[in-house]
Amino acid sequence: MDGLIPIEAPLENGHVARCRHWPGLLQSESLEEWTRSIPWQQNRITVYGKTHDEPRLTAWFGPAYTYSSIAWPSAQIPVDLQGLNKLISNTLKCREFDAILCNLYRNGQDAMGWHRDNEREIDPTIIASVSLGAQRDFKIRHRTTRETWTVPLGHGDLLSMEHLQLDHEHALPRRARIDAPRLNLTFRHFRGGGT
Ligand SMILES: O=C(O)CCC(=O)C(=O)O
Predict the structure, then answer these.
(1) 141 pLDDT more than 50
(2) Is 188's C-beta closer than 6 angstroms to any atom of ligand 1?
(3) Domain total of the chain
C-alpha cells in the first residue's frame, strides 16, 4: 500500500506535483549485494570555482548524461538491475525506466544538497527512488513558499516523485549520528524514449 505525501500541488502546466511512498516494498533486496555489484566511482565536482570530492559514491546506467560538472558516458543497465526496473515500473504502472543513477552514502557525513532533477533530457513525469540500508531523512521543499516535507526513507522503501521537478527541490541532508551506509537508486525516463 502506498502513502501519499501531502504535497498535491497543482502546477501552471496543468499537472499535479505529488510524491508517493511504499515503505518496505523491496525489503528483500540486499544492501550488501547491490553495494558489491555496482561499479562505484568517486566524482569530483566544481562549485563556485572550487573542486572537491562529491560527498557520496555514484554510478550511472543509461544514455550519456551530464549534470553539475559530471559527464557520464552511456552504459547499459545490467540484467539484475533490469529485473528491479521491471518490478518498479509495474508497481508505478509506467513504462520501464531508461536510466538509473546510483548513490552510495557511506555514512551520515555523505549527503546530497538541494537540487532538482530538471535536465532537459529527463522526463519529470515520474522519477522513482529505491532506498536500501540505513534510514535517512529525504527533504522536499517548494522553491518559493519554502514549505518543507521530511520523508524518512528506510530499507526497501520506494518513493515516486511525480511532476516534482518544476516547483520543488529535494535533498538528503547530513546526519552526524548515522554510521551505517545507505544505497539509493533513482530510475529515470529520458524524454522521447519508449511509449
Ligand atoms: O538519495 C536520495 O534519496 C536522493 C537522490 C537524489 O536526490 C537524486 O539522485 O537526484
Answers:
(1) yes
(2) no
(3) 1
Determine whether the shortest distance from the Cβ of 184 to ligand 1 is under 6 A: yes
Specify the ligand 1 atom closest to the Cα of 153: 3
Give the C-alpha distances (Å, rounded to integers) separating 18 from 6, 58, 142, 177, 182: 8, 26, 12, 30, 24
For a pocket test of ligand 1, which of 21, 126, 172 has the largest count of ligand atoms closer than 8 A to its C-beta? 172
Mean pLDDT over all residues of the chain?
A: 92
User: Is the pLDDT score of 12 beyond 80?
Assistant: no
Q: Kindly state the average pLDDT of the residues 156-182.
A: 95
Residue by residue, DSSP assigns 94-110 as SPPPSEEEEEEE-STT-
Ligand 1 pocket, residue 135 CB under 6 Å: no
Q: Is residue 119 included in any domain, yes or no?
A: yes
Q: What is the pLDDT of residue 3?
A: 60
- Asked whether residue 195 is domain-assigned, the answer is no
- Asked if residue 101 has its Cβ within 6 Å of ligand 1, the reply is yes
Ligand 1: centre distance to CA 161 (Å) = 11
Domain that holds residue 183: 3-190
Q: Is residue 25 part of a domain?
A: yes
Confidence label for 134 from pLDDT (cuts 50, 70 and 90): very high
State the CATH number of the domain containing residue 156. Answer: 2.60.120.590
| 48 domain-assigned | yes
Burial readout 182-194 (b: 16 or more C-beta within 10 A, e: otherwise): bbbbbbbbbeebe
